[in-house]
Amino acid sequence: MADTLEFNEIYQEVKGSMNDGRLRLSRQGVIFKNSKTGKVDNIQASELAEGVWRRVALGHGLKLLTKNGHVYKYDGFRESEFDKLSDFFKAHYRLELAEKDLCVKGWNWGTVRFGGQLLSFDIGEQPVFEIPLSNVSQCTTGKNEVTLEFHQNDDAEVSLMEVRFYVPPTQEDGVDPVEAFAQNVLSKADVIQATGDAICIFRELQCLTPRGRYDIRIYPTFLHLHGKTFDYKIPYTTVLRLFLLPHKDQRQMFFVISLDPPIKQGQTRYHFLILLFSKDEDISLTLNMNEEEVEKRFEGRLTKNMSGSLYEMVSRVMKALVNRKITVPGNFQGHSGAQCITCSYKASSGLLYPLERGFIYVHKPPVHIRFDEISFVNFARGTTTTRSFDFEIETKQGTQYTFSSIEREEYGKLFDFVNAKKLNIKNRGLKEGMKQSYDEYADSDEDQHDAYLERMKEEGKIREENANDSSDGSGEETDESFNPVEEDDDVAEEFDSNASASSSSGDGDSDRDEKKPAKKAKIVKDRKPRKKQVESKKGKDPNAPKRPMSAYMLWLNANREKIKSDHPGISITDLSKKAGELWKAMSKEKKEEWDRKAEDARRDYEKAMKEYSVGSRSESSKTERSKKKKKKQEKQMKGKAEKKGAASRSSSSTKSSAKSLSESFKSKEFVSSDESSSAESKKEDSEEEGGASPPASSEDSASGSD
């Protein structure tokens, strides 16, 4: 016979809900692992007292009772597996697997039996239903009646909240059957009552979820959070895991308590209790117990008097009471040397901790993902910028988690960690054909062998270049679309759309001529940079006096070399920080000395500015006078040239007057007078016409004389 039996897709009944997982039976005992939470129930073979096989809704089920009164139910077996299980129980556990079917008569009267943690309602020898007393949240009594209230189950669509039992009166004197029923229920029920003194109290602890400051009272069986608005009572049986995580700033610590089932506040469920501590906080703790009781209960894990950091004391007490290991980050170190990665999940920024057996994200909302429930991971390019990437995780149940805005410097470290844990990487399958030597360098720390990282770097460079080009030449791109030489049709369409969106008056202008506005836009484009260049040239005068420095800058220039010598190898940023600290710590008398120096420098600057402004005014007046003289001379020269041109044109017109009168077009006198008037309005053109007109008139006169 085999030493072990394994069953997949087995359902465990816990507080009214069916949780799927894997069941393994071995010589040492029974192990069930919940596929949703990863919680493991381990039943030693020596603790088993009874095994029952029965028909249930999901096929056939197995009920195990232990010697200390605990009951475990597993459903989902096939009828053919009974013989195999029965033989295994006989051979390894020395137990008979009894067959007991449930009563389905539909009667509502019978006998109640209390066995360990179970209330069984029986008709004859057959059970009708069973109630785990750990599900009971409250028990109240009335006249011949007992009411049981249950904890709300978040995993079930419909939850049973209340059951009432009618207890008929008996003839026995001195014994109340109703009170006896209620006491049997309360002795095993999960009814939290803060009776007695707390073992210890931690006051005003900062809690991130649920948010606020709470006093934590430690009782033997539960944890009591007392705040200004809400109170929470957390049984130690609901604590799933404990985490102690260092903050990225290395000055704070997170203590995370994973809960199943979660604590409730209205419709809000808190699956994690997150406490934030400062490493500098110390505490001296005295347990409210005798030394003998402390030694007997905790077996050396705690002492009556303890002292140390606050987070160490809280984690040490919780570990001893809950009896669970504390998970801390493993060997992972990010780019900055921290054991976590800064990222964003949904709308909030937080920290992602790669652990030895999973990932945990704190703090809003907290997420814990085990490696055994991960289907694959994916490294994706950031959607907003190339300086970051996204880390996606998809579980076997189909749930997807996306941690975004991770600095690309963290990629190599995170990829090596994921690769070392042998997690499936979605990107790798897509690139096996491109790079066949990928698997050979799977354990290498060099980033150059990672095809995805190389592609991400190249795309990042291209996008940065495009971004720089677009930012530097944004005006040119808009003007190129209005270039009538290259794309006349596109220009017309773009201009029409802009005109229609602007105003109704623009519509009419655009319909008249579509190419003219394009030319105007081009002219504007050519003129704008010229003005900017002129303005940039005019800038600051190098001869102008420099502005005075502040007292702090005068002190920094005088002490910069001293700070460098006191701290060799200090960077520029660290030097400025150190200087700021020294300046803040300086006494008022020393600061007043530098304030006086700064005031003297300001006076010298004002005096120099007055002298500079007077000199600049005189120079500007001289330049203005010289410009006026030049303009007058130019006007005089132009006037003389115009007179000479007019005289020559008038002489040539008199000689050819007879010829001009016989013809029907305008005379040269009208043309010359028109040209002279246009010459006055356009200065540059008039100079050219004045220089070119005398030879033209001489030629005409020569032809007329001939």
TrEMBL record:
Q: Show the Pfam families listed in the entry.
A: HMG_box, PH1_SSRP1-like, POB3_N, Rttp106-like_middle, SSrecog, SSRP1_C
Give the lineage: Eukaryota, Metazoa, Chordata, Craniata, Vertebrata
GO CC entries: FACT complex; nucleolus
Where does it live in the cell?
Nucleus, Nucleolus; Nucleus; Chromosome
Which GO terms are recorded in the biological process aspect for this UniProt protein? DNA repair; DNA replication; regulation of chromatin organization
Q: Which family does it belong to?
A: Belongs to the SSRP1 family.
- The organism is Aythya fuligula
The residue ranges marked as DNA-binding region are 545-613
Compositional bias ranges of the Acidic residues kind = 474-496
Q: What is this protein called?
A: FACT complex subunit SSRP1
What is the primary gene name for this protein? SSRP1
